[in-house]
Amino acid sequence: METSLLFFSQRNMWESKEKTFFKLMPGSAKEEASKEAKIRAKEKRNRLSLLLQKSEFHEEPQARRSAHLAGVTRVCPEEAIRWGESFDKLLSHKDGLETFTRFLKTEFSEENIEFWMACEDFKKSKDPQQMILKAKAIYEKFIQNDAPQEVNLDFHTKELIVKSITQPTLHSFDAAQSRVYQLMEQDSYTRFLKSDIYSDLVEGRPQRPTNLRRRSRSFTYNEFQDVKSDVAIWF
């Protein structure tokens, strides 16, 4: 609404200035200037119209996101308290996993939980071709040097994965997944239990808006469902 008012007020201001300018000019020059002014006015209107559309486009999704965040974790305090008993209990509960992921996004470290979820999904693989594709997807997104969402692993653990990536087994990522799990349990989980996100749930308070960063390409285990079975695309 405010953007719309700004659009029309600026448009009226430009038109008023142009009318005053034309009154002071001679005939032929006035006609030529009038044509140029119309072109400029059209360009200004187009730019303001585009600005208005962008503003409305961003405002509406933001409202949807806020509403989504408000209703995402309708968890009873008793359940939230159980999450504080162990890290495993937190991750084994659907709402607990979603809440912890939301917390990690505020710390810019969601790649850890996304890697852990990807490994969980990988271990459910049954088709050999799908296993190869998923293994390479995990490696390229999380393991290799300068990967888009590289997780913190030691050289030895990475080398074990590299050696088995062409002929992976269901246990190819066990060591790496265990390492990331320990990092989250000892570090992120401790801070999560002290966070406003968790304390609000335990106290039964409404969830506060959470500032989430946007990533260029976030990767989760759900993407594996769309992996094609053509192994050749990886080589």
Could you characterize the architecture of this molecule?
The protein has 235 residues and is an all-alpha fold. It has a domain at 77-203: Regulator of G-protein Signalling 4, domain 2 (Orthogonal Bundle). It has 10 helices and no strands. The protein has helices at 2-23, 27-72, 77-83, 87-92, 94-106, 110-122, 128-143, 155-164, 174-193, 196-203. The longest helix has 46 residues, at 27-72. The two termini are 53 Å apart. The relative contact order is 0.11.
Oligomeric state = single chain
User: With helices defined by DSSP (H or I, 4 residues minimum), what is the helix count?
Assistant: 10
Mean pLDDT: 75
Element order, helices and strands?
Answer: HHHHHHHHHH
Helix content: 55-70%
* E-strand count: 0
CATH 2nd-level architecture of the domain at 77-203: Orthogonal Bundle
Overall geometric form = flat
User: Which CATH class of the domain at 77-203 applies here?
Assistant: Mainly Alpha
Mind summarizing the main beta sheet?
none
Structural class: mainly alpha
Any idea what the CATH superfamily of the domain at 77-203 is called?
Answer: Regulator of G-protein Signalling 4, domain 2
Strand content: under 5%
**In terms of per-residue confidence, which ranges show pLDDT below 50 for 5 or more consecutive residues?**
49-73, 213-235
Radius of gyration: 27 Å
What is the CATH topology classification name of the domain at 77-203? Regulator of G-protein Signalling 4, domain 2
Query: Span from first to last CA?
Result: 53 Å
